[in-house]
């Protein structure tokens, strides 16, 4: 066995209704002034209405920063940091999807009284120094796994994104409460669920850092996600299915935080950067074509993952047969969940494919993890197949 290291969020609370105890969870950690980082949709839908009264009862002051946008910019992060400093926040809560949780991580770091690093010095791996404020994450989508990852993604230009990767970004507590996901539209439930499945698949096949723990988590994540996605999408009030999806996304997050993702994500990022296609949907659009590209090299892994993906529907056969069933099943997911399945359908012009391929090659941090070496010509062929 190769030596490996594994890091994750210190505590995970998986319980339907647990978010109503958020104030007490903050108080138990000594908090007196809390900033909740979220997005306008969460605030508009009143998803914090049941959570906020508890802060008055717990005698904990609370403020809300609700201006997080999808693909949050550096300016958005700095505005949230300024709000945290202004109220003297001593604990940060991320309440929302991946964007809100990513911003919350950086706020906890940059708003610490002793932090003297500008955000521009944080981009990259292990550049963050010092301490951060206590951090609790409450995901409202079963997708990103950001509640258990040491990564925050920031939009730094018109079409470019950069990552901050540091163990300092791992939260103190992740609260998995399916009630927080009940308002999700079917399309968002589907796209974020597929995103989580991609995390599990890419962690399982990650070339450099996969390890026994990440692989164990990835398999169980895929089983939970695959067996509950249809129910969560088509019967959105099914709490048990939504709780299982949250746990699956969390386990997948733990897996890819330690065995990083690869070409699906590398090709999805430029779609978000240029055309603002939501991240989960971008993953869904390129997933079948990257799987087919990787199949000659990743056949054994895909054959092993066919069982947690298909369960009793897996037909007996050799390794090639099981791997083919795995790829075929995932290729059907988008249409089964009523998502667009081609780049053309989401407004990507054909003349942009070469630029997308060029941009994807900038994601070497991810591409080094892909089981098969991928060139710019390969990336272009995958985009053309997805078109």
TrEMBL record:
Top-level taxon in the UniProt lineage: Bacteria
PROSITE patterns registered for this protein in UniProt: ADH_IRON_1 (PS00913)
Residue ranges annotated for the Alcohol dehydrogenase iron-type/glycerol dehydrogenase GldA domain, each copy included: 11-177
Similarity comment text for this entry: Belongs to the iron-containing alcohol dehydrogenase family.
Cofactor: Fe cation
Name of the protein in question: Iron-containing alcohol dehydrogenase
InterPro entries, per database record: ADH_Fe/GldA, ADH_Fe_C, ADH_Fe_CS, Alcohol_dehydrogenase_Fe
Residue ranges annotated for the Fe-containing alcohol dehydrogenase-like C-terminal domain, each copy included: 189-387
CDD domains found in the cross-reference section: HVD
Keywords on record: NAD, Oxidoreductase
